[in-house]
Amino acid sequence: MDSNRRDFLKKASLLSSVAITLPSINNDVFAAAPNFNMSGYAAPKIEKVRVAVIGLGMRGPGAVDRLSYIEGAEIVALCDKHADRVAKAQKILTNKGLKEAKSYSGEDGWQQMLKEMELDLVYICTPWPYHAPMSIAAMKAGAHAACEVPIGLTVKECWDVVKTSEETKKHCMMLENCCYDFFEMLTLNMVRQGLFGELVHAEGAYIHDLLDLNFNKNGYDNMWRLRENIKMNGNLYPTHGIGPIAQCLNINRGDRMTHLVAMQSNDFMMADRAKELAAQDSFFQEFVGKKYRGNMDTTLIKTEKGKTMMVQHDVTSPRPYSRIHLLSGTKGFAQKYPKEGIAFGHSFIKEEELKGLYEKYTPELIKYIGEKAKAVGGHGGMDFMMDWRLIDCLRNGLPLDQDVYDGASWSVIVPLSCDSVAKNSKTVTIPDFTKGAWKTNKPHDLTLNGGGNTGIRQKVSKDQKNQLKVE
User: Fold this and answer.
1) What digits encode the pLDDT tens for the residues 32-85?
2) Burial class (CB in 10 A: 0-12, 13-18, 19+), 3
3) Which of 15, 165, 277, 299 could form a disulfide with 172 if both were Cys (CB 3.0 to 4.6 A apart)?
4) Tens digit of pLDDT for each residue in 291-330?
């Protein structure tokens, strides 16, 4: 193991030891223990949500920008290992006329922040190994946690996040933004209205050519994402694909995933790319001779009620971007990629009919904030809808659209798929993080009942000219 990787794992281990004070327990015993059910839980209202953002590399600055437009949120702390990133993020606030947040930096800056600050929400945008330790520490410090995907990298981490949320009665929402994309929410509402009949099968994916980015020296800090493609051999990024279809299938709210099998191709590109780059630049020499995860991982999942799901992951092949988002029911069919289409028979409906479905079945959230979200931005607006909805729920004491059981069950596909691939596609059991509560848990509310009163600040340029009023 190279020294950089060893140091990174050591730091992550130290983070876990500091943040997780839970006893080491057998997962089977833990699964049988009684729990406070966080599904449908309405935490006390927070009029002004004091937010801290940890991690200001790839995703963090965008989160700071989006949150700065939400009137019910106040960014009071910014934290990153690198002080220069914190300084840049401060300008996002001050350029809008907002006051600076308190700055924290260094390896232990986030821990100091949690000790010193009174926070309502900790928004985590750090590399994957830090997600579970930081989420757990945030909840133990008295704040709700919102964390980029995945919420954990091991089965134990997923259980520990669940247990901490239940013990502290603090929300831990995994920030699965694809659940808020326009077609996904349209089809979710259509499922709820029975237009597809009984769903039988669903598919999702993360097919995204990241080969160049993963080998970019100026991309992910210390090449951390490339290192994860060496460390783990399975579906490393399942949540974008599975999140929306899991909601359509009422996973953890009427049904649950019981077991999976994963099959993966060999690596046909990453090892070769490392050799090519190392021949020109010695920086890449440490990545030569490593065993990389395969190009394509296909994970098949069965549910308690006999439904099936397929989730794919490929971040190296030169293919068009796709999350698939396919729903197949007893009365209808929908698929987002390569082109949005809905069918109630052998043929897709015409474009005018699809427009009519959008008009009739687009959920209230999108009708209320969709165009405003597009104006603010973030993956076409879905990021802002996610952030606004999160803050609106916290301010009004509403249950969150995604609870800790969703984050855990969608994320646990990472280690379980690795386990299945390592065992020649052996069947692997998926834990029931709800401990049986899935039988009575209700699907999340697609309306704005009890909320919808969180304002949006004006979107302005740095010089305050050409203002775009978002109201």
Assistant:
1) 565 899 999 999 999 999 999 999 999 999 999 999 999 999 999 999 999 999
2) exposed
3) 165
4) 999 999 999 999 999 999 999 999 999 999 999 999 999 9
Contacts of 10 (CB under 8 A, 6+ apart): none
What global pTM score does this model have? 0.92
**Cα separation values, 429 from 238, 412, 420, Å:** 17, 11, 10
> Taking a C-beta distance cutoff of 8 angstroms, is the pair 168, 145 a contact?
no
Cis preceding linkage at 150, omega within 30: yes
Cα separation, 165 vs 144, in Å, equals 9
Residues 6+ apart with CB under 8 A from 140: 19, 21, 164, 168
Judged by DSSP in three states, 236 sits in coil
Nearest to 138 by CA among 159, 117, 107: 117
DSSP string of 17-84, one letter each residue = HHH--SPP--HHHHHHS-----TT--PPP-SSEEEEEE--SSSHHHHHHHHTTBTTEEEEEEEESSHH
Is the CB of residue 119 less than 8 Å from the CB of residue 50? yes
Q: With 0-12 CB in 10 A as exposed, 13-18 as middle and 19+ as buried, what is 213?
A: middle
Buried b (16+ CB within 10 A) or exposed e, 140-158: bbebbbbbbbbbbbbbbbb
